[in-house]
Structure formats: C-alpha cells, structure tokens
Design brief:
single chain, alpha/beta, 8-stranded mixed beta sheet, 28% helix, 25% strand, globular
C-alpha cells in the first residue's frame, strides 16, 4: 500500500473500515464511482476470507462487472426486493450527512438502491466534507426527448432558488452526449452553493423531463471518512456519535493496483 497516493490510501482505509458493517447473509447495495470501486474490491476480499454468504446488488453496469470480477454473487434489485445495507461514495456530504452524488453519472440507480436499504453507509476521503453542498456541480438525469426544453425550464426554476450560480451544461462523452445506464442524459448544474438542498431537490424533480437529481437528503446513516495517514472517522447520524480509529497498511496481493480515478 506504500505506493498509493494519500487520497487513494484514504479511500482504501474508509472502504476497509466499512467492512465492519457487513454480516453473513446480507444483501448489499454496491455503489458506483472510484471510491465505491475500492469498497467492491475490499468486499470481495472480505467475503472470500470470511466465507460469507453475501448477495451484491450493483448500482451501475460498471460496478456489476467489477463485482463479478472479484467473485461476488451479483443479483438484481428486483431479485433482492430489499437490502440490508448499501455502501457507496459521495461527491460531497454536509454535517447532516446530506449528500451530493452523480459525478460518475449513476445517480438514478444509486438513489433507487440506497432508498431500498435498511441502512446507507457512505465512504469518502476527507476532501468530500463540506459546510454547504454545491461546490461540486449537481447532476440531474433527464430524458433525451426535449432535453433542451428541460434545460430551459431548469434554468428558469433556478432563478427562484437559494443558489449562487445558475449555469446548466449537458454532460458530454467526448463529442457526443453522455448516456446513463438507463439511456438518459445528465445536466450538470453549476450552483456553487445550495442554500436549501431539500427544497431544491423537491422543486427540480417536479420539472417535466427530469428523472432524478443527485441530492440525497435523509438517506445516508453513516459516513466513514478516510485519511491518508490511515486514520478513519465514523460519523453516525442516528447515534449522534463520531468515532476514530486507525487502519495499518499491510502488503496485499495487489488487489487494488488497477484502481484509479
């Protein structure tokens, strides 16, 4: 682990600490993105070492492929019906554990999986902690039909919202629009600061053409924050507790060498 950058070490120790919540027989939602990828690798290793019977429900096609690669038993959410736990990353989280997610474009499936769980745990490096959400662009998933009209409606709606910026851009994949796993587009809202995330989430979702937004309000229960020196801080919103521990780096079979942003 000595060759990892401090931010990758932070992601690794957060993912490793999250394994403490994994119990035999669980159905677990698997998040998407670079930090969640560390978790999937850790979970594969943990399940193999402990001989656990775990079912994994991925929130993106990319996560599904990685989960199968590390030997996890992958099922669909329809098969699982309900989940014991979801572990995912976040682009930002505030003091109330409200999240801004969707930088990887999987926000719709991530939110469906997270809300179908008894508990949601977010793993993150310390840079994701913010006083107020909004520095990271807020993604919203929109249907391709009439997306330009949807964009105008979003821009008009933002005029009445407590935000600092109102720029809205279509997410691209090279020269073509980005498509989500559900075949939709992503509009990124460059708001700089979101004064009332709950209100914004409710209002944005009322706009025709908007499928879902990247604000996760009252969904996350625990945030596990990793630091580059191996420290891990666990914030539990339900217990009102903040605990700190440390994970020592040990040489592994290089399970994590292919993970990067």
């Amino acid at each position: 682990m000595s060759e990892l950058s401090p931010i990758d070490k932070a992601k690794f120790v957060a993912a490793k600490q999250a394994m403490a919540y994994v119990k035999d027989g669980m159905k677990i939602g698997l998040g998407s993105g670079s930090t969640a990828a560390w978790m999937v690798k850790c979970l594969g290793e943990h399940v193999a070492e402990q001989g656990l019977n775990i079912k994994g429900v991925p929130s993106s096609s990319r996560t599904a492929a990685l989960a199968r690669e590390v030997g996890l038993d992958v099922i669909s959410l329809d098969e699982a019906r309900w989940l014991d736990l979801t572990i995912d990353g976040a682009d930002e989280f505030d003091g109330n554990l409200n999240l801004l997610k969707g930088g990887g474009g999987s926000l719709l499936q991530e939110k469906i999986v997270a809300t179908a769980s008894d508990q949601m745990i977010v793993i993150a490096d310390a840079s994701k902690a913010v006083e107020t959400l909004g520095s990271f662009p807020l993604p919203i998933e929109v249907v391709p039909f009439g997306w330009q009209t949807t964009k105008v409606l979003v821009e008009e709606t933002l005029i009445g919202m407590d935000v600092l910026g109102r720029k809205v851009s279509l997410r691209m994949n090279g020269d073509a629009p980005f498509y989500t796993d559900e075949g939709n587009h992503i509009l990124d809202l460059h708001l700089n600061r979101i004064g009332n995330a709950r209100q914004l989430s409710l209002v944005i979702n009322q706009i025709p053409g908007v499928v879902e937004n990247g604000l996760f309000i009252d969904i996350c229960d625990v945030v596990v924050i990793g630091y580059g020196d191996g420290r891990v801080e666990v914030r539990d919103i339900n217990q009102g507790s903040i605990d700190e521990t440390r994970i020592d780096f040990v040489e592994t079979e290089n399970l994590f060498a292919d993970l990067s942003d």
